[in-house]
């Protein structure tokens, strides 16, 4: 089967655009690890600002990666959950984690 390099490049660029930010993967990882409330997510990611987390969550909601649930309680309770579409990215994240671990091992051993 012949590969379409133009289409492959477009797909890679779409993926890199999606994961290119510093915070996107950590936010997805946090939510998929069970953190549902804004402050839980924020506390689980050292260095992220409230403003940046808010921006990332809004963008992820627009891209159908998280679902925002609002519960009419006092005070209002808002929770985020990964969509099934977002969960399809889990295998990629795990491969990135495994690659990062192996890369660190290779670099440390060469020193």
Automatic annotation (TrEMBL):
The molecular function terms of the Gene Ontology recorded here are:
DNA binding
Name by which UniProt lists this protein = HxlR family transcriptional regulator
DNA-binding found in the keyword field: yes
* Pfam families documented for this protein: HxlR
> SUPFAM superfamilies, per this entry?
Winged helix' DNA-binding domain
Keyword annotations for this protein, in alphabetical order, are: DNA-binding, Transcription, Transcription regulation
Q: What InterPro entries does this protein's entry cite?
A: HTH_HxlR, WH-like_DNA-bd_sf, WH_DNA-bd_sf
**Ranges of residues in domain HTH hxlR-type:** 10-108
Q: Report if keyword Transcription is assigned.
A: yes
């Amino acid at each position: 089967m012949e590969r379409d390099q133009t289409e492959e490049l477009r797909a890679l660029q779409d993926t890199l655009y999606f994961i290119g930010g510093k915070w996107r993967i950590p936010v997805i990882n946090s939510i998929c690890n069970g953190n549902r409330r804004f402050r839980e997510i924020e506390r689980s990611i050292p260095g992220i600002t409230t403003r940046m987390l808010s921006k990332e969550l809004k963008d992820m909601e627009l891209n159908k990666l998280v679902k925002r649930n609002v519960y009419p309680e006092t005070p209002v309770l808002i929770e985020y959950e990964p969509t099934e579409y977002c969960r399809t990215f889990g295998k990629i994240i795990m491969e990135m984690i495994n690659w990062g671990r192996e890369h660190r091992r290779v670099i440390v051993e060469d020193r």
